[in-house]
Amino acid sequence: MAEFKRNYFQKRTKPRGPRANNRINSPEVQVIGSTGQNLGIINTNEAISMAKEEGLDLIEIAPNAKPPVCKIIDMGKYKYDAQKKANKAKKKQKKIELKEIKLRPVTETHDYNFKLKNAQKFLSKGDKVKFTIRFKGRELQHSNLGHNLMNKIQEDIKLVGKVEMNPKFDGKQMIMVIQPL
Does any domain span residue 93? Predict the structure, then answer.
């Protein structure tokens, strides 16, 4: 009974990464040598013994090909190169952030110009900008002030951005999203 419990609670992890050496389950494979030359289609066991003679591993590069393509290379070097390539691709990605600028329907011109300048700066960096106009109390009855302000924002910012989400009401606030050109 104790034997069963220990085995039952052990982690069951499947091997990650490409199949290598004895885990390759195809009878024949297309083999690429350690120097990069194509060795042709060879029996899997022969290819594994060729790799062992060189002190390297047989790694499955293209498992979906017919027959699968394998390369004679050191497993540690292969994993290191794959990790380096993944890190380089991740570094090149540009993460777009959503910056929010909050206004009121009665915002004065200086404050408006200051916030508009910030929005233009965000858009030039490649971030999206979400404009939020919050209404309090009786201001909700004058929603046309919010629409006028949103139209003014669209006009003033059309050189650096375009509207992604048109102005719409969400409870007691009006929201508009602008994306960079």
Answer: no
- Residue 174 resides in a domain: yes
d(CA 8, CA 138): 65
Its pTM surpasses 0.90: no
Neighbours of 35 (CB within 10 A): 6
Sign of CA dihedral 29, 32, 38, 39: negative
Length of the chain: 181
One-letter amino acid identity for 103? L
Could you give the number of structural domains in the chain? 2
Q: What is the extent of the structural domain holding 42?
A: 16-82
In a domain, 104, yes or no: yes
Does the residue 92 lie in any domain?
Answer: no
Query: What are the pLDDT digits (tens) for 106-139?
Result: 989 999 999 999 999 999 998 999 999 999 988 8
Residues in contact with 18: Cβ distance below 8 Å, sequence separation at least 6, in sequence order: 59, 60, 61, 63, 78
**Tens digits of residue pLDDT in 143-165:** 899 999 999 999 999 899 999 99
Angle among Cα 61, 14, 53 to the nearest 5 degrees reads 45
